[in-house]
Amino acid sequence: MFSQRTLTDLDKKLLQEKFPTTYEEQLKKVENGYPIQYLLGDVPFFNVQIKVNENVLIPRFETEYLVEKILNRVETKQNLKCLDLCTGSGCIAIAMAKDTNFSCTGIDISTPALKVAKENAKLNNVVVEFKQLDILKEEIEEEYDIIVANPPYIGFQEPVDNSTRYEPQIALFAEENGLIFYRKILESIKNKPKLIAFEIGENEGIAIKNLAIQRFPNASISIEKDLAGKIRYLFIEPN
Ligand code: GLN
């Protein structure tokens, strides 16, 4: 969960272009830990460009890899119905809609985040439906082929990188030691989707696998690592 990236010469050049008169001041902010992504205003994400502000989590490399892994598991020419829960900036839903025939929906509790997500769909020329819903209190009404979520998954006790303090805290932290969203999402799914794909915390694999087995006893479940070699994904194929 690092959002901070090493400041490159290109970053400095972009910062200078964006803030010709206040460059030194902006650079100081970044050197003091403020995410440069919020200052520059957008980040590349997989196959799209995602606008960000303080109302949304900054998309992570790990999440790009989640999208890649999902697209490798399904037939992208099919018109599959996809749901991206805790969509935030919309990055997952938009990247999945971009070069596929999928119909994607993104859901989030945060109205200001959904505003960013809608702008992002437009900027990337994709059609994604965005809806406001509190998944901890409300049910998923429709049936989907693919359900994906990178929900808040850090327990309140866990240490985090300093740079995350500028990001929406509701996008990062979750009750039940970081597990509440996985439990609620699994309980809320009515049908048997082809695939459920979660980004997860590195110590959460077994606990989430157990939740998944309770809901889908015959599912194939695979716990996978990110490019840093840490457990980061859990895929459920209900069968
Ligand atoms: N889905 C968004 C992302 O992956 C937001 C995730 C979140 O806010 N927890 O970056």
Describe this structure in words.
- The chain is built from 9 helices and 9 strands.
- With 239 residues, the protein is α/β, with parallel strands linked by helices.
- The chain has 2 domains: 1-40, no CATH class; 53-237, Vaccinia Virus protein VP39 (Rossmann fold, 3-Layer(aba) Sandwich).
- The strands form 2 sheets. Strands 5-4-3-6-7-9-8 form a 7-stranded mixed sheet, with helices on both faces. The chain has a two-stranded antiparallel sheet with strand order 1-2.
- A hairpin with a 5-residue loop joins β8 (220-225) and β9.
- α8 packs parallel to α9.
- The longest helix is centred in the N-terminal third of the chain and has 13 residues, at 61-73.
- It is globular.
- Glutamine binds at residues 57, 59, 63, 86-89, 91-92, 150-152, 171.
What layout of secondary structure does this protein have?
Blueprint: H1 9-18, H2 23-31, H3 36-40, E1 42-45, E2 48-51, H4 61-73, E3 81-85, H5 91-98, E4 103-108, H6 111-123, E5 128-132, E6 146-149, H7 175-178, H8 180-188, E7 195-199, H9 205-215, E8 220-225, E9 231-237
Parallel strand pairs: 3-4, 3-6, 4-5, 6-7
Antiparallel strand pairs: 1-2, 7-9, 8-9
The structure holds glutamine (GLN).
The site of glutamine has 13 residues, from helix 5.
Low-confidence stretches: none
CATH architecture of the largest domain: 3-Layer(aba) Sandwich
What is the first-to-last residue Cα distance? 32 Å
What is the CATH C-level name of the largest domain? Answer: Alpha Beta
Which overall shape is indicated by the principal axes computed on the Cα atoms? globular
Count the strands?
9
- Main beta sheet: strand number and arrangement? 7 strands, mixed
**Widest sheet: strand ordering:** 5-4-3-6-7-9-8
What's the rounded overall pLDDT mean? 95
- Count of discrete domains: 2
CATH topology of the largest domain: Rossmann fold
**Helix and strand succession?**
HHHEEHEHEHEEHHEHEE
Number of helices in the DSSP assignment: 9
Strand portion, in percent?
Answer: 15-25%
Rg value: 18 Å
Helix content: 25-40%
**Cofactors, ions and other ligands in the entry:** glutamine
CATH superfamily annotation of the largest domain: Vaccinia Virus protein VP39
Q: In terms of structural class, how would the helical and strand content be classed?
A: alpha/beta
